[in-house]
Amino acid sequence: MLGSVLIGLLHSFRDAQISLGKKFDYLAKHVQANEWYPMAYFFTALDEAERQKSNLGPILYQAGARFIDGFYYLNGGKTIANCAADFLRLQSKNGGYSLVHRGDPSQIGWQDLIEMDEPAGRAVVTCVTPYPMEFERGALHRGTSIGGDVDSVRVESIEEPYSRYLKKKTHVITFKPKNKLDIELNLNVPNG
User: Fold this and answer.
1) Rounded CA gap, 8 and 174, in Å?
2) What is residue 183's predicted lDDT score, i.e. its pLDDT?
3) DSSP code of 103?
4) Largest CA distance in the chain
């Protein structure tokens, strides 16, 4: 996996004051967002955190959002997806997932945009991955909102077994696009 995924997780654990030990403290300080790391690091850290804290849902949600922020920062901001619809289309046919993962889909997973109705502000993304549902929810919520063209985003999810390594999550994403005039006004306001 790309280091930005691992950074999102490790920094969220650190902020929640979950100590994973010296190895992960060192890794959190030295992991590079644009380098590749074994997925086992993510899941070893997750296993250690689960032994220490009962409710990791909000932390994992934040970790998913942080991953998106880090990945977009690494890639020059909005050049990957300038709006919610661009981000959601990127999930089609493993597009977004393949940017940050390498390996056999039967082991590391895949995702796909199943349905999108842009005028209605609704999309369905299926993720067949080893990641926790809350991590994916955070990533999809933040990714849909990162372009700045929506007022609100909601992600509802269901999870079901898939294989020994992977779980199937179906995420229904609803978003309310901003009024086009509001977007144009925001573009014309000087920064500062």
Assistant:
1) 24
2) 47
3) S
4) 53
For the chain, percent of residues with pLDDT exceeding 90: 68
Q: Are 157 and 171 in contact (CB under 8 A)?
A: yes
Q: What does the pLDDT read at residue 150?
A: 94
Q: Are both 105 and 136 inside the same structural domain?
A: yes
Spans of the chain, pLDDT less than 70 = 54, 74-79, 180-192
Residue 36, C-beta contacts closer than 8 angstroms, at least 6 positions apart: 1, 2, 3, 102
Q: Tell me, what's the pLDDT at 72?
A: 83
Secondary element (H or E) of residue 143: helix 133-145
Range of the domain at 34: 3-74
Same domain flag for 107 and 51: no
Closest of 133, 134, 114 to residue 124, by C-alpha: 114
How many structural domains does the chain have? Answer: 2
Q: At residue 54, what are phi and psi to the nearest 5 degrees?
A: -80, -35
**Beta carbons within 10 angstroms of residue 86's beta carbon:** 15
CA distance 68 to 81: 11
Q: What are phi and psi of 151, to 5 degrees?
A: -85, -35
Q: For residue 2, give the DSSP letter.
A: B
Whole-number Å distance between alpha carbons of 140 and 91: 10
Q: Is 114 in a helix, a strand, or coil?
A: strand
Distance CA 71, CA 7 (A): 10
